[in-house]
Design a protein that fits this description.
By secondary structure, this protein is of the alpha/beta class. The protein folds into 2 domains: 246 residues, Rossmann fold (3-Layer(aba) Sandwich); 162 residues, 3-Layer(aba) Sandwich (Rossmann fold), CATH 3.40.50. Helices cover 38% and strands 18% of the residues. It is built from 14 helices and 16 strands. It has an 8-stranded mixed sheet, sandwiched between helices. The longest helix is centred in the middle third of the chain and has 28 residues. The chain is globular and about 60 Å long.
Length: 421
C-alpha cells in the first residue's frame, strides 16, 4: 500500500507533538508499506515558492516553501495563505499524480491549504483527516482568545477578527477586527466544506469530537480513537530514589502552555528538597522565555533547554511529577502519553482532552485551568505526600502503542480503498 502523510511541518526542525506522532506512525507503517511525507517549511526567502525532495530516517519527504509577495497586501496574503493557497494546492496535485498513493492521511494543514483534501478527492484517492486541534474551526487552532480566554466557537468566523495575525498587537487587532472578520467567515465556510469532503475523520479525544459536533459536524462522521506512541524507549526508563523530588515540564515555551503559571506557583511553594526542571526551546518565543525566567528567582528552577526525542527515557527517569499547565483545551498531548508510559504521575489542567488521559488513565491529578493558587495547593499536597506518587505509578493504565495504532489505521485505509474501488 502507498500512503501519503500530510503535516504542517516535519522533523528534524520541528518536534512538536503532531510532527513526532506523524513520524512515529509513518515509521511503524514503513516496514510493510510505502509511506511518504508532504510538509511545509519556512525558509528560501529569495523565492515566492520553492520545493525540494528530502529524506528523514529513511522516509521520503517532500518539503514546500511559500513566501507571500512583498506588497501592501502582504498581511492579507499571509492570512489567506494559512488556509487557502492555490500555489501549494497545484504542487500537491502534481505530487499526487507522481506518487499515485492509495490513500492520503492529513494530520495538519495550517499554512498548507484546506483545498488539499479536495485535490486528493478529485484524483479519486481516499482521504483521512486526524483532528489534532481545532484548526478547522479556529484561526489559531487553540480556541483561545487574546487574554488567554477560552473561546466558545467562531460563530461562523465573525468572532475571529481579534485573533488574526496582524502587526501592532491587541489594540490594532481590535480596531481592524470588523474588516478582518469577513475573511474569517470565508475561512470558516471554506474549511468546513473541505473537512466534510474527507472520507474518514478521526478525533483522538471525545472532548475534541464533541466540540466539532457542537459546531455542526455530524457525530457519525467522527471516529474517536486516541493516538498511539512509540514505546521502544520504555525499557530504558530507570526509576531512582532520591532525596530531592523533581517536578518537570516538557514542551513548548509559549504563553498558551501556561509555563508562567507553573513557575509562579512553584516560586511560593514553600517546600525544601523540591526542584522544577523546564525542558523547552527558549528560541520559540524569546520574549516569553525571558518573562518566565524573570519569575523564576529561585535556584531550584532550572531551564534545561530542548532535547532530542531519543532521550525521552533519560528525561522522564529524572522526573517525579510532570506538570501540564496548558491554558488552552489541548486534545491529546504527547507528553501525557509518554508520562503514562513511563509511569510518571501527571498534574494537568482540567481542560480539554487532558482530563480523559489523566482521570480515565488514573495517571495523576487535575487542577483548575489558569488558577495559579489551585495549582500551588495541588503541588504542595502532592509533594508533601510522596507516597501518593508511588500509588499513582502503580495504578496508571497503559497507553496505546504506535504499532496498535498503525494496525487500526491500515484496516481503515483498506476499507476506504475497497469502498472507493
Amino acid at each position: 500500500m502507498r500512503v501519503a502523510y500530510v503535516v504542517q511541518w516535519f522533523l528534524p526542525r520541528h518536534t512538536a507533538g503532531t510532527e513526532v506522532y506523524t513520524y512515529q506512525l509513518a515509521s511503524a507503517l514503513a516496514s510493510q508499506h510505502q509511506v511518504s511525507i508532504y510538509c511545509r517549511e519556512e525558509g528560501h526567502p529569495e523565492a515566492r515558492f520553492y520545493e525540494e525532495e528530502d529524506d528523514y530516517q529513511g522516509l521520503p519527504v517532500h518539503r514546500v516553501y511559500y513566501n507571500p509577495p512583498a506588497s501592501l497586501l502582504r498581511p492579507l496574503a499571509k492570512a489567506m495563505a494559512r488556509f487557502h493557497n492555490p500555489t501549494i494546492a497545484a504542487s500537491f496535485a502534481r505530487y499526487l499524480r507522481s506518487l499515485r498513493p492509495d490513500v492520503v492521511h492529513f494530520h495538519h494543514l495550517v499554512k498548507l491549504s484546506g483545498s488539499l483534501i479536495g485535490a486528493a478527492q478529485e484524483l479519486g484517492i481516499p482521504t483521512v483527516v486526524t483532528l489534532h486541534d481545532y484548526w478547522f474551526l479556529c484561526h489559531n487552532g487553540q480556541l483561545l482568545r487574546p487574554g488567554e480566554v477560552v473561546c466558545t466557537g467562531p460563530a461562523g468566523g465573525w468572532r475571529c477578527g481579534v485573533c488574526a495575525e496582524v502587526p501592532g498587537g491587541t489594540i490594532v487587532r481590535r480596531a481592524l477586527a470588523p474588516f478582518i472578520s469577513p475573511l474569517m467567515a470565508y475561512r470558516t465556510r471554506a474549511l468546513r466544506r473541505a473537512l466534510e469532503r474527507a472520507d474518514a475523520i478521526i478525533s483522538p479525544s471525545a472532548y475534541l469530537a464533541d466540540v466539532f459536533v457542537q459546531h455542526g459536524l455530524p457525530r457519525e462522521r467522527i471516529l474517536v480513537s486516541d493516538n498511539g506512541i512509540d514505546l521502544s524507549w520504555r525499557p530504558l526508563v530507570r526509576r531512582r530514589s532520591r532525596a530531592t523530588l523533581r517536578v518537570g515540564y516538557i514542551g513548548t515555551l509559549a504563553r498558551h502552555k501556561g509555563v508562567h503559571l507553573l513557575v509562579a506557583a512553584f516560586r511560593d511553594l514553600g517546600l525544601a528538597n523540591v526542584t522544577l526542571d523546564i525542558y523547552g526551546d527558549p528560541e520559540t518565543d524569546p520574549a516569553y522565555t525571558a518573562e518566565v525566567q524573570h519569575l523564576a528567582i529561585e535556584r531550584r528552577v532550572r531551564f534545561l533547554g530542548p532535547f532530542p526525542h531519543r532521550e525521552i527515557a533519560r528525561v522522564l527517569s529524572a522526573v517525579d511529577l510532570l506538570v501540564v499547565p496548558s491554558l488552552w483545551p489541548e486534545n491529546s498531548p504527547l507528553t501525557i502519553h509518554e508520562a503514562r508510559a513511563a509511569r510518571v504521575p501527571v498534574l494537568a489542567a482540567d481542560i480539554g482532552g487532558m482530563t480523559e488521559l489523566v482521570r480515565e488513565g488514573r495517571a495523576g491529578w487535575l487542577f483548575r485551568a489558569g488558577d495559579v493558587s489551585d495549582l500551588r495547593q495541588r503541588l504542595h499536597w502532592i509533594l508533601s505526600h510522596p507516597a501518593s506518587l508511588s500509588q499513582v505509578r502503580q495504578q496508571t493504565r497503559p497507553v496505546k502503542s504506535i504499532a496498535e495504532n498503525a494496525a487500526e489505521l491500515v484496516a481503515l485505509y483498506e476499507r476506504l480503498i475497497a469502498a472507493r474501488r
